[in-house]
Amino acid sequence: MQWVWYALGGRLPERCREWVLHDTTSKTWVLRHAARSTVLVGPLMLVWLLLPAPLGLRLALVLMAALVGYFYSFVYMEEAAENRLAKHGYPRGTGKRVRREAHADEDEAARQRYIARYRTPQE
């Protein structure tokens, strides 16, 4: 039940603080964000699916709710993660910093490949 409260934007007890950091910075943080978004968008889609209307219209409404809901959810995904962390006592920017540090080696390798391919010395 705590997870549902957390997914709806609630604050977890202090003992869960480290878990919130893990939740917003792990490899699967995007999937975790999608699951939390489903808690918000799902009931609306269910209501529209149960409306007394032709099935095609109801499915179109559900699809539109999913597209709009998930679109805005993913557009503001990093900000939502930072807000969750701030709500649990972390300074703003912690999530982005932790995720960047976790992928620093991969990012540097990609940068080196880019330089090798596109930044060859001019003759």
What percent of residues adopt helix (DSSP H or I)?
Answer: over 70%
Assembly type of the chains comes to single chain
Shape: flat
State the major sheet: none
Order of helices and strands: HHHHHHH
Number of domain units = 1
Supply the helix-strand structural class.
mainly alpha
Mean pLDDT: 92
Total beta strand runs: 0
Q: Proportion of β residues? A: under 5%
Low-confidence stretches: none
The total count of helices amounts to 7
Radius of gyration: 20 Å
Report how far the terminal alpha carbons are from each other. 65 Å
Region (Disordered): 88-108
Biased composition (Basic residues): 88-100
Protein name: DUF5313 domain-containing protein
InterPro entries: DUF5313 (IPR035197)
Give the topology.
Elements: H1 2-7, H2 17-25, H3 29-49, H4 55-75, H5 77-87, H6 94-102, H7 104-118
Helix pairs in contact: 2-3, 2-5, 3-4
Biased composition (Basic residues): 88-100
Keywords: Membrane, Transmembrane, Transmembrane helix
Protein name: DUF5313 domain-containing protein
What does this protein look like?
Pfam families: DUF5313. It comes from Amycolatopsis sacchari. This protein is mostly helical and 123 residues long. It has one domain (2-118). Helices cover 75% and strands 0% of the residues. It contains seven helices and no strands. It has helices at residues 2-7, 17-25, 29-49, 55-75, 77-87, 94-102, 104-118. The termini are far apart. The model has no long low-confidence stretch (mean pLDDT 92).
